[in-house]
Amino acid sequence: MIDALPLFHRIAGQPVIVLGEGEAALAKRRLVERAGGIVVGDANSDARLAFVALDAPETMAAKLKARGVLVNVPDRPDLCDFTVPSILDRSPVLLAIGTGGASAGLAKALRLRLETLLPPGLGGLAATLGKARETMRARWPDAGERRRALDAALSFGGTLDPMGQGGSEAVDSWLAGTATNLAGGLVELRLASADPDDLTLRQARLLGSADILAHEPDVPVAILDRARADAVRRVIRRGEVLPEGVGLTVVLRI
What we know:
The protein is 33% helix and 19% strand. By secondary structure, it is of the alpha/beta class.
């Protein structure tokens, strides 16, 4: 179970309340402006989000919450409806690293480490793939086939490996190439333990690609959560044999 649902909230051109003075308030103002939001200092303004950087924020935070405004109070996770992650910017790719307010320093350290790993061209790859949606739909009309083609191209060492230097030319080459056999199939995975950290790279990759996830009742939720959220899930009896279906079916046993 996760403690909070990560979301990307569009605020461009929208008012955002920022109350307070000092470095904490200035940091929030810069953050709002960076995302295209309009900083307002009126607690009664028509805004959906508010940052309250006051010495005694409790009363103001409660007042704003009563109006349905989502509130963030720096260094007070107990008063926050939302927290602000450390952001790694490869626009339009954004990586948000949060600790639920437990340690902003740890989130920053992780972001700085990832900054050295992710190539600068990652955003260009994402933008090019976005523009190629219609072309991909034309080449692979079936959604499952299209997703598997993209999964294969983006995999480690694939044509569009995100850790490589693939850009618009790589995407054009991929779309113009010979189609890969993407028939899917039935794959059975025998888990070594109930700990998701014990998943092999192959098991993790297949879980992330499955169209249908069939699992015995005692497979832990922590492992099931490694699969796509939109994968069809089915509980099966221990030892039950499944027929091969459409797309990629992954069977989990423990």
